[in-house]
Design brief:
single chain; 257 residues; alpha+beta; 2 domains; five-stranded antiparallel beta sheet; four-stranded antiparallel beta sheet; 6 helices; 24% strand
Length: 257
């Protein structure tokens, strides 16, 4: 007897102050210090909550993989596929809990690479007065990359991941400029932004993004942005897949019914 169950997964969440618009105004020194402390604590709490969720999800995933192997060996394809779907859903919140990874493929064209990529990006989501982390994930050839708050970047050269890092602070983006500049022609690049990044970025980030085909980039777009880029070193500016919004974006886009 089989039971179809949709995984109910916890999401890291924090209470948001209702008068957020007032934060943009000039604050007295003591008020500004309180707001800054709140922001630091919020990020720390979210990081801890997400780490706890990922740990629990990985424990569950290990058990599910064993059952998946058992069902596959018994030629119960439907059951094995259902478990795989549960693992994929679990990975939306804890990427390390994805189904068994598929090795990266060797050198291929940009068009071929696009068929192997699934990406989502979200800003903070306000649900019933609570701010939660939206779904952000990156899957390449069925393998989920580690996702953290900030701009998550994977670069692939001849099938090998030469960059797999999250960039969040202004200093980090200085590193990203150097990392992108150092990529060889033909390097494949995927980016997805989770929640927010530093509000001030180096001017040179715009030029660096254009080297992998970006048409808009993230310079002067604001810190709270859903953003996806799938590009290749040497693409003309504007030729990459580039999606952005203030809520959620994904690639491939969902088909409208």
């Amino acid at each position: 007897m089989s039971v179809r169950t949709r995984l109910a997964l916890p999401m890291a969440s924090v209470l948001a102050l209702s008068a957020t618009d007032a934060w943009a105004a000039e604050l007295p020194e003591d008020a500004a210090a309180l707001v800054a402390a709140y922001a630091r604590n919020r990020h720390d709490l979210e990081a801890k909550a997400m780490a706890d969720v990922a740990k629990e999800a990985e424990t569950l995933a290990k058990s599910l993989r064993k059952i998946q192997d058992r069902e596959a060996k018994a030629n119960r394809a439907d059951a094995a596929a259902a478990i795989r779907a549960s693992l994929d859903e679990l990975a939306a919140y804890a990427p390390a809990a994805s189904a068994a990874p598929t090795p990266a493929k060797a050198k291929r064209t940009f068009a071929e690479f696009l068929t192997a990529v699934q990406v989502e990006s979200s800003t903070y989501q306000n649900i019933n007065g609570q701010v939660t982390t939206g779904v952000t994930r990156m899957s390449i050839d069925g393998t989920y990359a580690k996702i953290e708050q900030g701009l998550n970047v994977v670069a692939i050269v001849d099938g090998a991941h030469v960059i797999e890092r999250t960039y969040r602070t202004t200093t980090h983006f200085g590193d990203l400029i150097k990392d992108l500049e150092g990529l060889p022609q033909g390097a494949l690049v995927v980016m997805t932004l989770m929640n927010e990044i530093a509000p001030t970025l180096p001017e040179a980030i715009d030029k660096a993004f254009r080297t992998v085909g970006a048409g808009q980039g993230i310079l002067n777009q604001g810190a709270d942005l859903a953003y996806i880029l799938i590009g290749c070193k040497g693409l003309r500016p504007g030729a990459a897949i580039e999606l952005m919004s203030r809520d959620h974006v994904e690639y491939p886009p969902k088909k409208k019914r």
